[in-house]
Specification:
2 copies of one chain form a homodimer. Chain A has about 300 residues and is an alpha/beta fold. The first copy, chain A, has 10 helices and 13 strands. The longest helix of chain A has 20 residues. The first copy, chain A, is globular and about 65 Å long. Chains A, B: One of its GO terms (biological process) is D-galactonate catabolic process.
Chain lengths: ~300, ~300
């Protein structure tokens, strides 16, 4: 039997994929067992439970599972790096069931420095799904810690982390901007207004415009229930403004989203205010990336096309 | 008997000044009775307790005491505005002791819009202490919500609020940047490194560099106990970078600090990285400003110099 069990294992959740011998996803399971919420029995118990009933197959994990607070720390791999470099740098540990778990290293951009864990598998998978973008492209992986990534000749050449998601949650939950506001029905106009405010902040930047989320409300020109959407627009817009200023994306180079559909939809809307049109995001990129890494590591073998199509 | 009781009444604290007939401070009392921590009996009880034993004198308050959640809401006064305009716009209420409490309006910059309450009294006081700066100058009032203010011909002509202090506290207490870090002994080098990182972020801005507070630590080039100082430098440096980009300060125009000595010292150190040399801050500016406003409102009368000097 050929195939792979791929694990996208982060801080707040665990996603397990069962891939067949051609790298197609046969089943996906999602559990809230991130590093911070492991079940009793820890990593071993979580792995055993999430793969219950699945055949014995090579297991490859990516994400914070390989961090200092994870199952075993795997050193970061320095840029530039692509599927081959990452695949050849897998680490491994022996689980309680006596079988190996391979773990992908994270990537480190020495310029900055900056680091990622898990996104590298998504990027590898995305590039296998969109080989035309391997030459020169930029990528956005929105989230708690959004990544903006540049790719050249199939390798990651640079990236930067923006704390957009975490900052939004902090400001909404704990700051004066969130006081008295509730995230009610979505307000696309307030979101767009935030994006445009960030864009038009120019070189001063949106950090200097944060307080506007309060003053516009005090001024009566922004409804309190629209503050969360305005704030979201301000922070997402700042990602685009800063990334363009930093050269992480260029208007004449392909830019592609990877990630959750709803979150990526916000980014697509924000992009229009920068005259950038984005395609719908690539999904399950991590599963495809884990397959590619397993191929390079020799854990699986691509079935010949004529057999795979039987 | 001539004189004034000045009250600088904010969200977290109350400062009461007893001024003599020439506007000199005779006594200052500081209580933790801001709007959020009023003693039993509320504003009336706080006023009665903080002025205990003082003679009956006109009472003038500034700050959040005049906000929607304060003792009585006073409408904002639109810019441009100086001592005369603010002094002529005082509101008042009758306290439980049957005597008036006058309350200064806050200022509103229609461009933005942006608002302040309390800082306007500090600015009026600071301009009376430094009349040479009344022509053209910029001012920094550091704090939870820092203000950068432009003054022309004795009037406030524009300002912007930066949430530096609040953001620092949020990130330190609740974000991944604060995880595992402690604010130990002060580290001026880490502070300077943060300032320089913000300065050199250029048009991209320091919001895009926030995550460096974590990656430098993971990289082993920033000690975890130095993260708070680095983060502080990053945010204070961003104030200077953004304010210069926004035209709120110019290298060829006087720039003056008002506020707490220790906090202002951080700003003086940050300024050196932007080739700006700042004088020590002006203190008790609010008390002097309340006196000036009371003069314009006719609540007190400046004693003739020869009598005052008796």
């Amino acid at each position: 039997m050929n195939g792979l069990i791929g694990l996208d294992w982060g801080t707040s959740s665990l996603r397990a994929y069962r891939l067949d011998g051609a790298g197609h996803i046969e089943e996906t399971r999602h559990r809230p067992w991130g590093l911070r919420h492991l079940p009793e029995g820890g990593f071993d118990a979580a792995l055993s439970a999430v793969t219950k009933g699945w055949p014995v197959l090579p297991r490859l994990a990516c994400g914070m599972v390989g961090s200092r607070n994870g199952w075993r720390e795997m050193p970061y791999l320095d840029l530039p790096a692509g599927a081959a470099e990452i695949g050849h740098a897998l680490g491994r540990l022996m689980a309680a069931d006596g079988m190996d778990v391979h773990i992908a290293p994270g990537l480190r951009d020495p310029h900055g420095p900056d680091v990622m864990r898990g996104e590298e598998a998504q990027l590898v998978g995305a590039l296998s799904l969109r080989p035309a973008l391997a030459g020169t492209s930029s990528w956005i992986l929105p989230g708690t810690h959004s990544k903006w990534v540049t790719v050249r000749d199939g390798k990651v050449t640079g990236f930067r982390t923006l704390m957009t998601g975490e900052l939004f949650a902090l400001l909404q939950q704990h700051s004066i901007l969130g006081t008295g506001t509730i995230s009610a029905t979505a307000n696309p106009d307030a979101f767009a207004r935030g994006v445009v405010t960030a864009r038009d902040s120019g070189a001063a930047g949106a950090l200097s415009r944060l307080f506007s989320a309060r003053t516009l409300m005090l001024d009566g020109t922004l409804a309190s229930e629209s503050v969360p959407d305005y704030l979201s627009g301000l922070l997402v817009g700042e990602e685009f403004r800063a990334a363009l200023a930093d050269g992480l994306a260029h208007r004449d180079t392909p830019l592609q989203l990877i990630g959750d559909v709803a979150l990526c939809e916000r980014y697509r809307r924000a992009a229009t205010h920068f005259d950038i049109e984005l395609d719908p995001p690539l999904e399950d990129a991590a599963a495809h990336g884990l397959w590619q890494l397993a191929l390079h590591a020799g854990l699986v073998h691509q079935a010949p096309k004529d057999i795979a199509s039987c």
